[in-house]
Design brief:
The chain has eleven helices and twelve strands. By secondary structure, it is an alpha/beta fold. Strands 1-4-5-6-7-10-11-12 form an eight-stranded parallel beta barrel, surrounded by six helices. It is globular.
Length: 240
Amino acid sequence: MIELIPAIDIIGGCCVRLTKGDYAAQKTYDAHPEDVAKRFEDMGVRRLHVVDLDGAKAAHIVNREALERITSATNLIVDFGGGIKQESDLRTAFDCGAAMVTVGSLAATQPETLLQWAEQFGADRFIVGADAQDGRIRTHGWLQDGGMSLREFVAFYMQHGITRVLCTDIARDGMLSGPNISLYRELMAEFPACRLIASGGVSSAADIRALNAAGIPSVVFGKAFYEGKIDLPALLSELR
């Protein structure tokens, strides 16, 4: 079964969602992310994707207290991203209870640093964030071209033993327009050992069923749940 990974995006310590990564298009859902995380755990979720949006903009972790509250309040397996640019950020994330970290821009611009970290801490603790638009990797809050195609990016990390890839279709992020299933299916066909995490565009339980039917290992979703379009306990029960 596909692994369901709800997302908690954090700005100013609060649980928010953006549309297409636009900080000006922000909606706050809860002032206490740890309470949201506990609700997910009570529903039967096991994994959680936490993004420090302030950290992503500041290029260092900002919302460490929120991460610590989430990991202290739950037994969820938390992967954390946003602002991990230095080894000190990496250690902060792990010290605050993150089981894994998602690294995006640095994975494209400083691959040698990420490979060194993977050797030091273990490749299984890293997820590479493949933020893509028109088949190209985008970096720095999706504002810059990453200098390579999505397929080149995934192939590089697969060759180096980092097989967890969070692929976000930027054009669909926060739009509730449906995920780019054909893109994910093509990636899985080319890289069958990839532990691909689909992200962007999930609008309903039907979208997640379609990803499951396509053989996609995992999916991150947020807005569809927060807007009441996914009955998460019912979907988990159905898929299991």
